[in-house]
Amino acid sequence: MGCGNVGHIIAKERVGVDITALHDRIPERAGEAASLCGGRVYREFADFVRADVDIVVEAASVDAVREYAEEILSHGKDLVILSVGALADRPFRERLVALAREKRRKIHIPSGAILGLDNLKVGQIAPMRKLLLRTTKSPESLKIRADKSMKIFSGKANDCIREFPKNINVAVALGLAAGREADVEIWIDPGVDRNIHEIEAAGDFGEIFIRVANVPSPDNPSTSYLAALSILTLLRNLDEPLVVGT
Asked: Which H or E run contains 201?
């Protein structure tokens, strides 16, 4: 569901899965992706959600998750959510989790544009004293003019949603993994040409520092290639008997 840049990468690079159904609000985009994987295009979501598939991968938008996630689970499909910012809405998230439990389905959250979610899940057992996400982007990517590095936001993830709704997926994923809301800083720097995510965490286990400098997707500079690869890796390993990571 969602056949933009990430959807095209999944269709082209699929490993260990058959992509049999595709849906996008722009059918032509779904058709282009279908030509890469041999799947069938469903113009109407109502037909798509009834297709004979095991798992639906959302690579569309936060709005698409809000509109369609419950219906996908209700039809007995597992669900991969890339636009995890939708789950910042706690009542909505709790409804999804309850529905997945009722239907005996799984909701998968890929690592997306960062690394280390598995490690950060230790915070669910040993609470973290610190969980900070510092994101640095070029001013142009946020349509801001600047000639020097500067911090343009500092606060909690839920506050960031209102000011920078397109930059919240990573923060929400961190919070879900660690079991606490992340503190967020957003910086702009005219000297960078990649999106840089720095994660700092501390607790009784010690200290963690992760730095990821994302290479833009070859066909869409606004998309992280790592995000698409994280979904492909998740799909490839769903049925593996050897599970690496927590």
From this structure: strand 195-203
Q: Using one digit for the tens of pLDDT, what is the confidence trace for 229-245?
A: 999 999 999 989 998 87
Domains of the chain: 5-108+227-236 (3.40.50.720), 117-214 (3.30.360.10)
Whether 23 sits among the annotated catalytic residues: the reply is: no
- pTM as predicted: 0.92
Name the token pair of 94. 């709790």
CA distance 139 to 39: 39
Q: Which amino acid is at 38?
A: G
DSSP 87-107: GGSHHHHHHHHHHHHHHT--E
Average pLDDT over the chain reads 93
Find the distance separating the first CA and the last CA of the chain, reported in whole Å. Answer: 28
Residues 6+ apart with CB under 8 A from 229: 9
